[in-house]
User: Fold this.
Amino acid sequence: MRRVFVIGALVLAGLAVIGAGALWFSHHREGAVVFRTVAVKRGDLSAAISGTGTVEPEQVVDVGSQVTGIITSFGRDVRNNSVDYGSVVKAGGVVALIDDTLYVAAVNIDKAQLQQARANLVNAKANVLQIKAKLWEAGADWNRAQKLGPGQGLAPTTYDQYKANYEAAKANLEMAVASVDVAVANVAQSEATLKKDQETLAYCTVKSPVDGVVVDRRVNIGQTIVSSTAASSLFLIAKDLHRIQVWASVNEADIGKIHEGQPVNFTVDAFGDQVFEGLVNKIRLNATMSQNVVTYTVEVNHDNSDGKLLPYLTTNLQFETGHRQNVLLVPNAALRWSPRPAQLANESGPDSHTAAERPAGRHGAVEESGAPQLHGTVWVPEGAFVRPVHVQVGLTDGMFTEVSGKAVTEGLQVVTGETRRQPAGSQAQGEGASPFMPQTNMFHRPH
Assistant:
């Protein structure tokens, strides 16, 4: 009986040794879990919507030609240099000259025709005076004939002749007066034609309509311009590069958070270390669709008094949608992480199991757009375990989130993830040797 008891005790001891060895092997094979933690900090937070865009002049004027001809020369800019890319020009300043030979000839012809029309008018008026005199004479003869009457010292044929002469004189006067009206109309027409051709001649001298900078020169000297085609565009002139706009493309999901006067920060690759500021001017209503994605163009005004930003630079924008000052902040990773049930401290209570059983990130997730949610959970390490701390979740910038609550304080360490220590098998030989295996001394025998 005693032998049976001893044998049983030895079997149990052997099983205990095997279990301890298995536990040790498993622990060293997988490595111990170490929690990665970050301290809750206090600071400022800004939530923003991202977008891309391009720098655009506030107003661009397309200077074209209204006449057909050959470019003979360019004008002079404010530095007395030939107008070219980047030239600063003044309103009314000459930017190009077009060959005006044909237009000068047309004006000279118009002047001659006007002179002839005016002479015709003078002749028509003189003719009216002559016909009026004849009408007076014919009227006097007709009056005498009427007093004498036919057959009483005046032959009937003569009587009829006086009457006919008088009626013809009246008709001639009416025709003469009408000729004067025609002559007046011809003079007016000639004057209009001359004025039109003079204006056309003036178009051969192309002038800048605004003060600005030449953004693009689209023609060369000697090039023929046809006014009826799009090729008649000569220059693009930016009215004022001290006031520029950024045309930003914003997704339809975010456009509801954009409003006039909203602060905007943006950067350009040309000056990557500098942040520029602007304000939303307007949202254009003509949305565009590309690959089933609807976007709106948002105009952002920027004061470019230093002239640093050039037209058509690519920009990366941040539209500020919210700002908090001096609030408690945790990384978003702390709100997304959740423990396994075996990692919960015993005194955490049933609520901790409920929080841990939620899918990772749901209980503390924050929308990328920056819209706050109400509640979240962060986890505080206690040795090899963690306990939950329930918080109210506020604004987020995509990396950090505003939190508040009675149990959360500045400096509190919260878990953002976990790391396993290096397994024993990767360490130097002898460091992780089993205590149940024979030990081997690592040394060299002296010769």
Remarks:
- The two ends are 57 Å apart (CA to CA).
- The chain has four domains: 30-45+326-426, 48-56+240-323, 60-99+204-238, 102-202.
